[in-house]
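SEVERITY: medium
COMPONENT: batch folding queue
REPORTER: lab tech (J.R.)

DESCRIPTION
The queue accepted two submissions in a row. Attaching both inputs and their returned structure tokens so the on-call engineer can compare them side by side.

ATTACHMENT 1
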Amino acid sequence: MSARRAIVVVATAGALALFGTSCAPGSIPSSPSSPSPPLPGSSGARAAATAARPSTHGTAAAVSPARPETRRSGYADMSAATQAMQRDDAANPAWLWVEEGRQRFAAQCARCHEVAAMAGVAARYPAWDERLQRPLTLGQRITDCHGRHVRGMGDKGDARATDDARPDARAALPPEDETRLALETFVALQSRGRPIAPPADARLAPWRERGRALFAQRMGQLDLSCAQCHEQYAGRRLAGSVIPQGHPTGYPIYRLEWQGLGSLQRRLRGCLVGVRAEPFAADGEEATALEAFLMSRAAGLPMETPAVRP
């Protein structure tokens, strides 16, 4: 047995022991077997005459948000050294992206938006988009705006802008694009210290419920759910690290494991791969719905962007 295969076997065995789960390879499908209901603003809803209320996705159980007095950021679970790295802007490696985002915002965004007006914006996303008739995350809003108004503009803002709304223009900045991460980090920084405040918009309710169901749904060959890790076993240790409650208070974050900055979608993708499930499509409906639920679950907790995590 190779060293790499041995590590995988040990890690898998540890996860199964922690969660009291048993499964034979291939016995659990890597993605949900039941189809997801169409959501308002989704392609399925536009094709259907009426949208049904989201289902509980088969094995999904009801999940209640962590009680307010017991909720805590992942910052509280880190070592003192990592906490100090996040607190000190001069030592926080994510500040490289902040500075790039500051320059890009000045060159490409300031003609429409003032920096001061960005205060509190990140704390209110995902938010409903009237034009697209669906919710957008902050990163999706940036790439949509960039595709319609900024694409074609040079780094110094000296080229012509475009108001092109074609799908290929909106796809100009995928989730882990450096420009998107830099702009998202700089914009989210303006909300640092402010409480997460999801919009009271009834149109977001079905998306949050879809996200709640995904959070509770067992997935992958390891047959684990987000709720098992981040609610039932939060505070325990897995492979030497404390399992956090999973509140998205500091995204985009700099992870020491990644040696780079990453979005919430990247973190979700890593979790899904870890339980041997099919990852969500980039900027897909599942990722947006789960982020909408996670932000509502974290309502009231302060924003930390740019956060540092192990």
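ATTACHMENT 2
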Amino acid sequence: MTSTSEQPTAATGPFESVDDVVEALAAQGYIADRRLATTVFLLTRLEKPLLLEGPAGVGKTELAKMLAVATGRKFLRLQCYEGQDETKALYEWDYGKQLLYTQILREKIGQVVEDAPDIPTAVDRIGAQDSVFFSERFLAPRPLLEAIRSDEPVVLLIDEVDRADEALEAVLLETLGEFQISVPEVGTFAAKNAPYVILTSNNTRDLAAALKRRCLHLFLDYPTAERELDIVRSKNTGLPEAAARELVEVVRGLRELELRKAPSISETIDWARTLAVLGIDDLNSQILSDTVSVVVKYDKDVTKALNALPGLVDPNATIDDAHGHGHGHGHGHGHDGDHSHDAPTNGRSAGPVPAPDDEDGPDGRAVRAAKDEPGRHAGVYGAPGRDNQEAARTGSDKNPTNPRKVSSSQGDRSFGLGRKRAL
């Protein structure tokens, strides 16, 4: 007697090769590199979920959408957020529908219990019917359960899973590992057609190792300059080739700045379309500064971008010294200006100005030491020497060291001790 062990075979997917993946996605306007196309090919053949991690705006969500179009599958999306529970991801009971049915069937329920000899018997009879109200008829499926129960193949996108709580990750394990969902009141639903599952993460927190273990993994970063230029070309923005190439380089330069949010690929496309609408054929720092808000959305980021744009457009550009620091004037920052601080404009003394050849300026420690003299705080209330200073100012011959005597009656009046409260 011989035994043969079945070897697991890969499913037959919609793509014959990695090149087919590249061509199919390109036909939908999604330019994928070889590494990404290989991962998508494995997703379709191994039928394992794919976890895409990387910065926001690099095409993770768009990949799931275009994969659904390229394969002709139904597209389902679960958008994750903080505080989300399993009822919004898996399923929940339609309580409104259950209540409506109980009202409609009130008469029938009365007939079931009308001949019951006592309350326990009536309760038992009603309890025997509770499975009617907790059946698939009253089950409201959410994206995960809908993907599992679907009669047609689907692409399931679980978007920004890092925004959800860790408890939701535990709920996902059964779905991702076995493509099934257990409903205690009904049973276990297994997928008729294994869905293509794509999870995305912007790396706002680390995901559980158990979730990563069940998925193929790929870190999707910003594309190379050539690939990003191909993406801009594929969108038919209307911007000339030379200007589009230069714009891509400018965007890549902005991403190297320490911005709160770096420009995404979709924002690069929006910027190209904006410049095309304005009829721009040749880029310059002025027009880019006027439209930089298309790709930079925070005030401090805009300031950094405006300062960097002249150098990104023309590396040999020179910036006016008087306006090169973002505040439009110079107040002793070490650069030469057209205005002078020698003459006061408000009637106050301008103070001593260090000599031009004194690069180090006055010694701060020496200045502080010169001011460290006894009695310099005499004008402050409670400081030693204040009484002497006050006597000198008023010309009084009183000895400040002898305090004025206060009678006991004055003290009593001051603190209200001389008055007797009437009972």
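NOTES FROM REPORTER
The radius of gyration is 39 Å.
No errors were logged for either attachment.
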